[in-house]
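Hey,
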Amino acid sequence: MNSGSEQNVAIVTIGRNEGERLKSCLRAANCGARTVVYVDSGSADGSADYARSAGCRVVELDAALPFTASRARNAGFASVMKHEPDVAFVQFVDGDCDLVEGWLERGVAALNARPDVGIVCGHVREIHPEASVYNKLCDLEWEQRPGEIRTSGGRFMIRREVFSAAGGFRADVIAAEDDEFCVRVRGQGAKILMVDAEMARHDAAMTRFSEWWRRSRRTGYAYAQVAALHGKGEERYFVRDCRRIWFWGLALPLAAVGLAAFTHGWSLLLLGGYALQFARIYFRGRKRGWAAGDAFKYAFFTVLAKFPALLGLLEYHWRRGRGHAPAIIEYKGSST
């Protein structure tokens, strides 16, 4: 272990059946932090045993309760507080990510320089963006300008006291739990800072359309759930996102097809709105400096995503209306 400022950092890694990706993640994590805690959500691939052999403190979640990233991160933080209660900062990372060498020092320096900042994060890039169009989409999604931001994503460094004061993650939020958590962190007056430095490399390993579809459905569910929690606040968090999904996923196609018989088919011209939306997103991507092919892929799948996202919205409201607990939506065999 190093003796620098990173010694004041504990790392919490979460995962489920991440296989070789977890091994790579833990190798990268075991490079300077005071302690590394791995929280396992019912893996059947020996992940917990490997983490122990790598010198990590391991927490295995009870399978009697639903597995969520929120629950795993809370358990990891609790373990840090039990064994290293004086640690100043906690870095969260998912089991499909490798922390970049030097990030811990950069993150600590950023927090030490800004007492008003409670969370810092850096850039995340895909390890294999060329492997599939879905990996490339993730790589484009990760791009974010440095500066103060609304949410950090699930990979970030946080002050110990800020996490405790916020009460941790809500274990019943199945996705976009980072958005929900960051709303409460900012509500306490702490700021969230994107540092202009690479923080982690992510391996989506998403190669099938069905995985992308389920991921988009989960996004719709998450928008609806977080909007139900924070949509009435000053920010009206995710309210506009939900409205866009209702409009593009349901209202527009329903009006275009439903009115066709009464308008001699003229209402079908409303479907041209999708082409206009595609063009708007495409040219916005080009202005960001993306290659034409990348901007095309991003625009196409962003428009298409409204339909699986609609299914997620409907599922959330159906379950909520019947008093059912939130349903975990996994798009592949991992916790992330």
